[in-house]
Amino acid sequence: MSLDEIQKWLIGPDGIKESFGDLRLWSAALSFGEDTIRCENLSCSHDWRRLLFAASILAESADREPQEYALMVAEAAVCFSGEPIYQDAGGLILARLSNHRAVQLAQDRELLRPELEHRIGKMEQLLLTRRRLHSEIFLNEKKSILGNRFQTELWAKLASSRWLSATAPTAAGKTYAVLNWLLLQHASGNAKSSVFIAPTRALVSEVERQLNQLKLNHGLNSLKVTSLPINDEGFHSEPFIAVFTQERLHIFLNAGKEPHSFDYAIVDEAQKLSDERRGVILQDSIERVVRANSTCRLVFLSPHSDNPEVLLEEAPDGVATSVVPSNTATVMQNLLVAEQVSGKTKEWTLSLATEEGKRPLGSFSLYDRPTCVRKRIAFVALALGKKTVGTLVYVNTADSAERVAALIYDGLSNDVFEEDQELADLSEFCEKVIHPKFQLVHLVKRGVAFHYGNMPSLLREEIERLFTSGKIRFLVSTSTLIEGVNLACRTIIIRGPKKGLRQDMSPQDFWNLAGRAGRWGADFYGNIVCVDVSKREVWPRGLPKKTAYPIKRETDQVLEQFNDLSEYLSKRVDMETASVNGKLEHVAAYLMSWQYREGSLRDAPPIKKLTKKMAGELEELIKPSLEAIDVSQAIVDANPGISIVALQRLMNFFRNDGRDATLFLPIPPEDSDSVDRFVVIFDIINLCLAPVFAPEKRVLPCALTTWDWMRGRTLGQMIAARLKRERAKPKYQSDEELPYARFIRETMASVEEIARFLAPKYLGAYLSVLRQHFQEKGISKEFPDEFPYDLFLEFGVSTRTLISLIGMGLSRTSSIELSNYIVRSDLGEMEVLNILVGGEWEGLDLPALVKREIRRVTEQKRLENSFDLNAENS
């Protein structure tokens, strides 16, 4: 028999598949901690020699299924066999799988004794050395890492490709490898400027922090890593890596006099090109980068995609391309089903979901009778997470996150908790910076928290840090975790997952979420517990099958609705803003912009998939919209997703209005008249560009949110102002009647949606058109270029000092708290760095979390050797 035939026999019905299944059930039960699951019928006796020998054969396979069997046996031996000889054998199989991080984790947790290579025979020592050499990735002359099979293939293909698309499940280590490769390009002088595009601000912060840590290993202490989209001549004088969302990348490109030429571009979570609103903005940003430099090297990263080669379709002719898919299994994941015993609401069963069906694992009891849906998921989490750390509960809304977290907190009332200083500091931060009635103030004291996307970054990152360290044992989260935040956990509890209130979660998003369970290098097992699977109203399609993301650009999806798009384009020139179709508008704006710039649609990437006749029809439909256009091409390029027709309508409004043009300018946010001017501006945007601040009664609240955010109001101040306005309404007779939790959540959501997305996008377009109007009237000197409103709104500050503090790596929250003690508003980065190094802020009445972040940033600057301590002290 060939090796392949032996491997197929081993995991087939005639081999030892049944023994593998028994071992998997046993190890899955133990992964929850001793005595958590009542296991009446599980086999506790295993033929370790036979299983480990079989696993050593399966580990040689290049296919995922045999690798997963080998991984399961190896990790079970290491974690649960209790015999050093079997633990060592498991460690060798992990090394054979190139899973060196799991070996290191086992040694760190004292499951494997160190110096494994000294306890094996000479031949196995030679084989182990050979595998390590094959897995070794050299970052530079002094530093190397041991990669898994996917990482080593990715590293090799990166060296030979100009455009590359890599896809792998969460926890395969693709981002870590690419970041090190990017830094190597800077260290070797191949790159002067690079951009890493991430879909969320949370991921931007995480990648920026990773790069700042990793660059020290490459001797790149002075390399600038920034998430600030500042584009001036001084900025380009030294090498840098920019970490941006697609919106920040557009801000950066718009700020330059000439298109900036990046040498390297990394697009993370590239499947987001299919998003309805932001997918088109992402596509446009990538195309702008390539137009500025056709030799730019592009790397696309996506989580387990079905067709990663699609992302390489627009590579220039003759450019070397590569696709790197992953079959590497790095962590053992168990898909489990939790169901109530009929007639006994406190008694539940747990089963392992396999291809052959559900296999009973055992039973467990709930804390109390689950009299509502939220209690079902909260009590299951309590029962399964009581003996471990790292239990994450997925819910569909921010409101549910808070309510389920409160139930878990109450379920821990009989536990004894020693006071922990870090949890106390987090509680103090929530009380001082958010609001005394913010629920996290008391929840975190018992190691319980919730997590959603609208939270301040410093708060969200501290919750993630304490959850990873195990001090927060239970974390209730919304779909933030599907958006690329790399947060590891041991167990995920899920019931009827949706994205928001109504949209069912796709199987791909489900498995992307499930990938958070058992992150590579952080744990051996990941448990995905699905609650009430037998209820069709909860899981209409049953358990999601493991399927890959189909990558399809939003532009391609809309063009498939050819008749609808054609009809929309035919009416667009005379269409009122109230009739704008959000889904069609972004793609229509993209096509109009392309035709306006190039004179034809034939080379537009999505058009290439249409017939010549269909492409010609679209061109003819767009022509009438372009006939009266005289806004500049730069304005059109700078505002993706906003129709050229709408931009021209705004220009015509300014030209036809008889008032002084300066009356249309924003007023600096420190002026109390600023909010009234925002009301005027938002009314004009609703009239000419899009009704994003409509209806009329919504304009003033949007203006207040934008004004407060830009003038550097803390979130706590904005929440207090909202509560004050609500108290004045006759609806609430006393403070006790105020729904504090809802108003706090709504204020956070308004900041995110209004002040940080809609306002910068549409105010940026408004000001770019107004600037051209000033130029036409010969009054350019009166246009306030010293106020970059898009930057101010993106970061929620309006002074150079605050921008400099954020540029140092501080969060907006810490920057504002510290700036309250700084007199000048015009300090540059070196000047604020002097303040941080001086250390006088240690004696100020700042929240402990803020001080901790300042210390982290200061220490990072010390490591970078970016300043001379003696010079500063003198």
Radius of gyration: 29 Å
Record field, number of beta strands: 19
Sequence of strands across the biggest β-sheet? 12-11-10-19-16-13-15-14
> Can you tell me the CATH class of the largest domain?
Alpha Beta
How would you sum up the global shape? globular
What is the CATH topology of the largest domain? Rossmann fold
CATH homolog superfamily of the largest domain: P-loop containing nucleotide triphosphate hydrolases
Mean pLDDT: 91
SS content category? alpha/beta
Sheet having the most strands: 8 strands, mixed
First-last Cα distance: 78 Å
> Could you name the ranges where pLDDT drops below 50 across 5 or more consecutive residues?
867-874
Helix % is: 40-55%
Number of helices: 34
Strand proportion: 5-15%
Domains, number:
6
CATH architecture of the largest domain: 3-Layer(aba) Sandwich
Q: Would you give an account of this structure?
A:
48% of the residues lie in helices and 11% in strands. The strands form 4 sheets. The protein has an 8-stranded mixed β-sheet with strand order 12-11-10-19-16-13-15-14, sandwiched between helices. The chain has a 7-stranded parallel β-sheet with strand order 5-6-4-7-8-3-9. Helix 2 (17-30) crosses helix 4 (64-80).
